[in-house]
Amino acid sequence: MKATRVFELTALALVAVAAVQVGWWLFDQHAYTIEKAQAAQALYAGQLRAAQELLAAGVSEARVHELLPDIEIANRQAALAPAAGRALVSEIRRRYRQYAWEGSFFLLALATCIAVIARALRAEARVLEEQDDFLALVSHQFKTPLASLQLSLETLALRPLAPEQSRTLIDRMLADLARMEMMVTQILESVRLERGRVDLRSEPVELAGAVARVVGALEERARSQRIALTSDIAPGLFVLADPLALDVIVRNVLENALAAVSPVGGGSVSVSARVSNGEVALAVRDSGVGFPPADGARLFEKFSRLHPGGGSSQYGTGLGLYIVRRLMHLAAGRVTAESAGVGQGACFVLTWPAAPVPPA
After folding, report:
1. Cβ pair 248, 327 in contact under 8 A
2. How far apart are CA 152 and CA 253, in angstroms?
3. By C-alpha distance, which of 207, 210, 271, 208 is closest to 239?
């Protein structure tokens, strides 16, 4: 167990013991106040009996009052002075208020400490769980392309192949390398974003041209998967963004859309844009597997990979949409995801501040 976790658990135990001690102190002070009040009442009762006996013995009322100032005499009858009774009640209430305020303060402070430590423990447990999931995920995701690369290389080394067969194996190896490169890039990019080591520029970027470059790079993949990839963005729409970050954002969203359509066996992915209230919204719609409407926010969490059943998918690192959300936040933009339900496709909307058209 890590030293920090041992320290946190020890601190939590000590604070819990302190809270129990404060509670016991409050209970003990309450019992002590009751005991002192009963003792004072017994003392006043004894004084009343003594005063009555003195009066019965013929002692003057003035002399009795002089001996017992808390006792009043009226018609040879002894009674506790109202001021003394009020003073006793007032003292009891004062002590109750004092213990209540002091005890509440200490208990609140200790409860806050317990809550902070418990939250830190939960956060650490969540980080450890994410690390375990991440290691298992990376091991699985890298194992598949590595096994494919090994098989292709062994096939090439065993015997000479026809040019067509060699070309097929080479294309497969290049695809496996590209997949591993993408995963490594996403992992490194997520670490940089998590630690704030990203310095983005903010300049006018034409959206149509930026999207066209990404779409052009993904067209071959879409055709091989029988997916209709279309873009309908009017020229002249400029957004305030970093050109490289915008390329990463659009690429990750489109790759996510293509991955969502692939299990369906053919479909469509369309890209459109509109201007509204000084903002430019880029919508990416797909006819893929969709997701439950309540899971829209979960898609952008780290390592989140949803499939139609609501669990994790077997493809991807779960970092692409997380990177999209972080980059959009740094660019003063936002991203949302909507779906009518499982099997109903999805729509991702990226919104940037609109930029004025730069002079030619």
Report:
1. yes
2. 31
3. 207
Identify the residue whose tokens are 């002399």: 63
pTM confidence score: 0.55
Structure tokens at 225: 């998967």
pLDDT in tens, 116-165: 878 887 877 777 776 676 666 666 667 767 877 888 888 888 888 888 88
Q: Give the span between the Cα atoms of 265 and 286, in whole angstroms.
A: 13
Strands (E), the chain: 71-74, 77-80, 203-206, 227-232, 238-241, 267-276, 279-286, 334-338, 346-353
Q: Which class for 335: exposed (0-12), middle (13-18), buried (19 or more C-beta within 10 A)? A: buried
Taking CA 292 as the corner, what is the angle to CA 251 and CA 233, rounded to the nearest 5 degrees? 35
Q: Which residues make beta-bridge pairs with 351?
A: 281, 334
Q: What are the structure tokens assigned to 269, written together?
A: 């992915």
Cα–Cα distances in Å, from 18 out to 15, 97, 117, 256?
A: 5, 21, 14, 52
CA–CA separation, 319 and 147 (whole Å): 23
